[in-house]
Design a protein that fits this description.
This protein is an alpha+beta fold and about 500 residues long. Helices cover about 40% and strands about 15% of the residues. Strand 5 and strand 6 form a beta hairpin. Helix 7 packs across helix 8 and helix 9 crosses helix 10. The structure holds adenosine-5'-diphosphate and magnesium ion (MG).
């Protein structure tokens, strides 16, 4: 099999060529770290990047006789997330021990939830680039502990272990096998991350590992039963998730088309070579000898507490998107671009306040986002505040400047700061609407170009040339509408 770079294996075109009559079936298990200052069953801190083993309590190090105590805040975040995913909240859930040995797991088991998770079925809607929506089912969300981290590259003879992450609260969010392409998988992770960030329950920082996904992939001919799946572990980049799916689907199709069968296994994605590699054969649930943790009582939630959390939820991306479409007249695509990020949506709302929604959306999505992207800045770091951009748009609406001049003013504001009105005054950019002044320029240009002027009667397009000349002579400051009217009056056309 040839080796492909990740770039070479990404993209919709290739996938169709590769899989032909095959359908790809994908289900994701996303581990989202709860944004909490302390761990799921201990009071130790969870700060990212702290010195190794500086955030480890006796519970996290599994000292004999230590007892876990549930962190109510983490439970609340799981419920909040469940509500945000429009999922069933289970008021009775159970913590189980998932038993396995690993040097970064001092307890010899992970406390997780197996048969009775805190959250049941829910949904995530994907915003497709063509404006359509695709619904992906959520199977469950459960709370569990993270493991520590083995370090193999700091000492020539020994492997070291850092237990800072040991015991940190994770929400494992399991999708149904409803995802049908690498593109949908990428959009699913993006949307889930957006919802978690709106809710404030996980920072969604994939580079720091606060959000990572196990990607289950199988292939089948459309209409057939689900095929055997392979699970690619621990992916923390959307780009690699997509590339890994493309590679893995192709590998499976090749095996089947050559008469072989897929064996269920656990894989790792080799990012350097763009290939999946076998890590181990798949373990079954019974291998883990799950049983209810005798140190912990079942978790029982008061319905009134759940209701209170529901009332405290912010407006979520799907609701915001609907409001932007219904109330502000935005297209589904523009609306989904604007709501994807909470801060961007807030910026836009400030700009749109009391102004034309579409005009505000155009300025924010193309001019502002374009400039931010070029400068590699986040919207919270924008040199032009939402209020200042709003006031610039007002100058267009009240005819002080043309849309074209406004772009120049925006560039100046972005590069040098300042207030739109001041820049317009200081640089004399005010639009000329005075018809006398415009007429004088028009007359000069007509007098200098008699043959062109004669053309207008037979070639209405020649009028455009005159408009261009007048705008040039006035450095873009003449009101285009007035210029057109005066030219038509003088030349016909
Ligand atoms: P485990 O925890 O053993 O990996 P689960 O039953 O919890 O198993 O399923 C894990 C994930 O695998 C889910 O996201 C599910 O949607 C997905 N999945 C199950 N069957 C398939 C399949 N045939 N093809 C692709 N994904 C699948
Ligand atoms: Mg799994």
């Amino acid at each position: 099999m040839t080796t492909k770079s990740p770039e070479a294996t990404t993209g919709q075109k290739l996938i169709q060529g590769v899989t032909g009559p095959w359908e790809i079936v994908i289900g994701l298990e996303v581990h989202a770290q709860v944004s909490s200052n302390s761990k799921l069953f201990s009071g130790a801190a969870t700060e990212f990047g702290a010195a190794p083993n500086s955030q480890v309590s006796l519970v996290d190090a599994a000292m004999p006789g230590m007892l876990p105590v549930i962190n109510k805040y983490c439970v609340e975040q799981a419920v909040r997330t469940g509500l945000g995913l429009e999922a069933q909240i289970n008021n009775y859930s159970v913590f189980d021990r998932k038993n396995y040995f690993y040097p970064d797991l001092p307890q010899g088991y992970q406390i997780s939830q197996y048969l009775q998770p805190i959250v049941g079925e829910g949904t995530v809607l994907l915003d497709m680039p063509d404006g359509k929506t695709v619904e992906i089912g959520i199977e469950r969300l459960h709370l569990e502990q993270d493991a520590g981290k083995s370090i193999h590259d700091m000492h020539p003879q020994h492997s070291l272990v850092d237990l800072n992450r040991s015991g940190v609260a994770l929400m494992e969010i399991v999708s149904k096998p409803d995802i049908r392409s690498s593109e949908e998988a990428g959009l699913y992770v993006t949307k889930l991350r957006s919802i978690l960030r709106y809710l404030g329950t996980c920072d969604g920082n994939m580079e720091q590992g606060s959000m990572r996904a196990d990607v289950n992939v199988s292939v089948r001919r459309p209409g057939e039963e689900l095929g055997t799946r392979c699970e690619i572990k621990n992916m923390n980049s959307i780009r690699f998730i997509r590339a890994a799916i493309e590679y893995e689907a192709r590998r499976q199709v090749d095996v089947i088309e050559e008469g072989g069968t897929i064996t269920q296994e656990t894989l790792l994605y080799d990012t350097a070579n763009g290939v999946t590699r076998s890590m181990r054969s798949k373990e079954e649930a019974h291998d883990y000898r799950y049983f209810p943790d005798p140190d912990l009582l079942p978790l029982e939630l008061d319905q009134s507490w759940v209701d209170e959390i529901r009332l405290s939820l912010p407006e979520l991306p799907d609701q915001k998107k609907k409001r932007f479409i219904d109330d502000l007249g935005l297209s589904p695509y523009d609306a989904s671009v604007l709501v994807a990020d909470r801060e961007r949506a807030a910026y836009f709302e400030t700009v749109a306040e009391g102004r034309d929604g579409k005009l505000a959306s155009n300025w924010v999505t193309s001019d502002l986002f374009g400039a931010l992207k070029k400068s590699n800045l986040d919207v919270t770091e924008s040199p032009v505040s939402a209020e200042a951009l709003g006031r610039l748009i007002d100058l267009i609406s009240d005819n002080t400047i043309s849309g074209k001049i406004a772009k120049q003013v925006f560039e100046i504001m972005f590069a040098e700061g300042g207030e739109a009105a001041d820049i317009v005054e200081a640089r004399g950019l005010r639009q000329v609407t005075d018809s006398g002044a415009i007429e004088a320029v028009v007359d000069d240009i007509i007098a200098a170009n008699p043959e062109k002027a004669a053309e207008v009667a037979t070639k209405p397009k020649a009028l455009g040339w005159f408009v261009g000349q007048v705008m040039k002579a006035t450095q873009g400051k003449a009101n285009p509408q007035a210029v057109n009217e005066i030219l038509k009056k003088k030349l016909g056309g």
